[in-house]
Design brief:
The protein is of the alpha/beta class. It has two domains: about 25-110, no CATH class; about 125-360, Aldolase class I (TIM Barrel, Alpha-Beta Barrel). The chain has helices spanning about 1-10, 20-25, 35-40, 40-45, 50-60, 65-70, 80-85, 95-100, 170-180, 200-210, 225, 235-245, 260-270, 290-305, 325-335, and strands at about 125-130, 130-135, 140, 185-190, 215-220, 250, 275-285, 305-315, 350-355, 360, 365-370, 375-380, 385-390. Bound molecules: iron/sulfur cluster (SF4).
Length: about 400
């Protein structure tokens, strides 16, 4: 048994690099940018890389990338925040996990019949132009088509960055529809990235939802702690989040190279005003589809008070076939994580079923056989099979 245990532990995780400051890593094109500018979310937002020339000037395009950016532009947009661009490891070239999430490749143009423009059936379950209800007690308000960056694996990539701004009238209507559904207890403010909205619009949303006596939970889905953490240097935003506390903030870190001093600072700022933090990683082929990659990420998140909450099987969205893994690959990741991290660090591994049928937990099988209510054989985290007398 001891030998087995040692063998299991000898599969070493990748080592998380010293947590870096994106300012210290900024590319030469931004060498003259001051620390104050870099820390300003408005500066970060207005200096996003939005086309092939921008990306080439700052991080340098690989030979195949210019053509890919131009080819995919009609279908999917491109945006990379300076903070996120600074995390790219140029020496890894096309294999860099940050680059893969930010810069298009020609694989996005691959067509497969199982890929969908609306993989979660959000249009089908719409209760207003920008609100969806897929469960009796939950509703989602899709607040904006904007984001700090356009993740190449985005489920809503058919809308994000491509459509007209959502009007205040449409947002008001969505809130009205959600408030009218008395069984709804839990509301997700999502998008795009809702923190792309003005503080006034955010306050309108939180204030309207808090007036309801049937809404217990407000969840804010934002990737900005990872992609543009400078947004949380805005004291007015923090005041709003504090005023309508508790807000559950669900963010998305996918790889240890996304750990940064700026992100840690953002998570701390959110914690200090009473936000409850959870992380929703997406399982991405060639990026984080090994337990050894996710383990150090999850350790860092726990240290920063952000609990690994979900590990999503990558949805079947158009242009994402190169990121998708098998269900089995994720089960193996979960098997690796179990025993290496406490239960606090183990996310729910879920598939969000196509067509809006909801999330289903996917769990590694630990019961090896036996007879229910008699003797069962159960496999533990390092492979030992133990007899268990069931009742
Ligand atoms: S931040 Fe979220 S909504 Fe925006 S592109 Fe990334 S995954 Fe999509």
């Amino acid at each position: 048994m001891e030998e087995l245990e040692l063998n299991a532990l000898s599969r070493k995780p990748i080592v998380i690099q010293d947590v870096v400051s994106s300012y210290d890593r900024r590319p030469d094109a931004w060498r003259d940018v001051s620390e104050k500018e870099w820390a300003s979310w408005e500066w970060q937002w207005s200096h996003r890389l939005l086309n092939a020339d921008d990306v080439d000037r700052v991080i340098g395009l690989l030979p195949h990338e210019r053509r890919a950016i131009e080819d995919v532009a009609d279908q999917f947009s491109v945006a990379v925040s300076p903070h996120y661009a600074a995390l790219i490891h140029s020496e890894l070239k096309a294999e860099c996990p940050i680059r893969k999430q930010a810069i298009p490749t020609a694989s996005e143009l691959e067509c497969h019949e199982d890929l969908m423009s609306d993989p979660l059936g959000e249009y089908r379950h719409a209760i207003s132009f920008c609100a969806t209800r897929r469960y009796p007690d939950r509703a989602l308000i899709y607040t904006t088509h904007e984001c700090a960056m356009r993740c190449r694996h985005c489920t809503r990539r058919g809308r994000v960055g491509l459509m007209e701004r959502i009007s205040h009238e449409d947002l008001s209507k969505a809130v009205e529809c959600v408030l009218a559904e008395e069984r709804v207890r839990d509301v997700l403010i999502s998008g795009g990235d809702p923190l792309s909205l003005s503080n006034e619009e955010l306050e309108f949303l939180f204030a309207s939802l808090r007036k309801s006596d049937h809404i217990d939970v407000i969840r804010l889905c934002t990737r900005m702690p990872c992609t543009l953490p400078q947004r949380f240097n805005d004291p007015d935003l923090l005041d709003i989040l504090n005023k309508y506390s508790p807000i559950y903030v669900n963010t998305q870190f996918n790889h240890p190279y996304e750990a940064s001093c700026e992100a840690a600072h953002a998570l701390k700022a959110l914690r200090q005003i009473g936000c409850i933090l959870g992380n929703q990683s997406v399982l991405l082929r060639g990026i984080n589809d090994r337990g050894e990659v996710l383990e150090p990420l999850y350790r860092w998140l726990l240290r920063e008070g952000c609990r690994p909450y979900y590990l999503f099987l990558c949805d079947a969205a158009q242009g994402t076939s190169h990121f998708r893994t098998s269900i089995q690959a994720g089960l193996e990741v979960m098997d690796t994580l179990r025993g290496r991290l406490s239960g606090l660090g183990i996310p729910h591994y879920v598939i969000d079923l196509p067509g809006g049928y909801g999330k289903v937990d996917l769990c590694p099988q630990h019961i090896e056989g036996g007879e229910p209510n008699a003797r069962m054989r159960i496999r533990n985290w390092f492979g030992a099979v133990v007899d268990y007398k069931d009742v």
